[in-house]
What we know:
Chain A is 81% helix and 0% strand.
Amino acid sequence: MARVMAMSRLTAHPAGILGGGGAAIYVLFIGLPVIALLVRAAQQGDFLAAVTGDLALTALRLSIMTSVISMAVVVLLGTPFAYLLARSDSLWARVVDSLVELPLVLPPVVAGVAMLMAFGRGGLIGPGLENIGITLPFTTAAVVFAQIFVASPFFIRAAKLGFQSVTKDYEDVAQTLGVSPWRTFFRITLPLAGPAMFTGLGLAWARALSEFGATMMFAGNLTGETQTMPLAIMTAMDTSLDSALALSVLLLAGSVFVLVLLGLLTRRKWQGR
Amino acid sequence: MIQQNGGAVAKGWVQCQVGNFRLDTEWEIAPGQVLVLFGPSGAGKSTTLRSIAGLLRPVRGHVEVGGRVVYDEDAAVWVPTHQRRLGYLTQQYHLFPHLKVADNIAFGLRDRNSSDSKDRVAELSSLLQLGGLDDRYPWELSGGQQQRVALARALAPRPAMLLLDEPFASLDAELRRTLRRELRTMLAHSPVPVMLVTHDREEALALGDSVQVINEGRTLVTGEPLDVLGQPGQGRVARLVGVENLFDLAIQERNPRDGTMTCVAEGLRLEVPLDAHLSGGATAEGEQDRVTVGIRASDIILAKEELTGSSARNRLQGQVVSVESRPPGYAVTLDCGQPLRCHITGAALEEMSIEVGQQLWAVFKASSCFLVDETPAAETAFRG
């Protein structure tokens, strides 16, 4: 009832009319290319063959494997880090906090070059790593590094906001009830911040799956080793538009799947406090 | 029947420093007794609770809970919060929003799935009238129910001391009274020492076995609730506890035979108790000629005609300047040369059909007037 009234009041409001127009244009702008992609892919005859082809499956497998690894690293290291950022108000924490946003504004290609300068053959610590038998550039590990670099801020920021929304009073009360700080974290803080963390994980995962620039620079484009889905699409464009289309649809489906899955996980059974 | 085994005195003292704020306080509470910390916001009441709970580290101090030293700076004793066996109730309850009522109550129990735990939860739910709410989430409860769940959760692990931080502040007056009564009953069942923070005078009187008035981090006075809050002897305390009428009067005549004296101010003439007992020392040599007198609004009787032939020593005539609702009754202000605030019931207001502009008589005994010491040195000094 209230919502209906608010809506009708909005449509009479100039902001409502402008906003409605804007929304329509936006939906078209985003929706049209997606629909076009699906229509063109459906029109081609050997869509299934392209989707299940070697190129596609190899790239898909690599994309899934690397993104799962990078997300595991991001969650394991990013969660305590985000908690620290949320609870600390020291100058140090604030400086680090703004550093977290750097990868968001840095062009991925630049990130790739920077990582090459650090871990590459002639890089800052690359030779040292090589001495102990570790070579990073142009390996599958480099793909994971690139994904972590560009995608982690999405998770860390969301997790930090999630932890901040759990006021310290909940933790205080839990401890007065005889529950240790560790158990309090797992029984109170983590479940309450969970929805926000899943949202962040969804965004980070989608970003890792679509990562292109930094991977290209730092990991290269080796089939089966560093050629993830976006790189495979780029490569396929040179030879056959059809397989590029098929791969694109596959990646689109994968991204939508991740969003829907995590969307389901972020639904909470309780309401705001 | 709930039997607590926390039958030990809770006592201690702390000195805390939070930013520029300094707190210096001490307490001693017998099992089953309620000590009310009374004072304005920012006085240091919550800081006291938090330092007892171990949520804040004092600069110095010694805290005993359940017969055990949980903090002593000099002896380097620091027991972390979760091992102090406390029940801590916050003003916003902080029920865990992702847990159902039963899980909230059982949160502090060791083995939550044991039959003992289930019995304990059932026992507390029935005692606090929470039956049938086990599967609800906190947001599905009314304010009073939330408060009861928070109390049940705090009591479930059988704490050795209860810390209540304005537990009824966000409830309406009616519910507050009911819950106060329930809390009293609970305490009879489980005799643990209770420290209760409030700035509500009525609450302090209803629940406190003793009252400690604190302001700006210092204890001004500790004593029986009626002594401290009814006729406070100190000016600062009187203002803090909200004595409605405070007059600055000149002493005109002392009548030692009656134990009274006559004091005047512009348009006002009062019979008040003799100032011989006044602490503060000013009366020892040269008697002072000015005095501050307090009268509680609820000690004043309003009459339509002059009440002659009564024992009341004070009869003042004045015009009604305002009538305000002050649940559960009304506050009537008379202009008797100086404004005089009186509290009456709604029934009295109707019966007398009191209106603004009306002439009324205010009647009260000399002993309803109490002298207030304005000497600033009246603070209780601590381990000096």
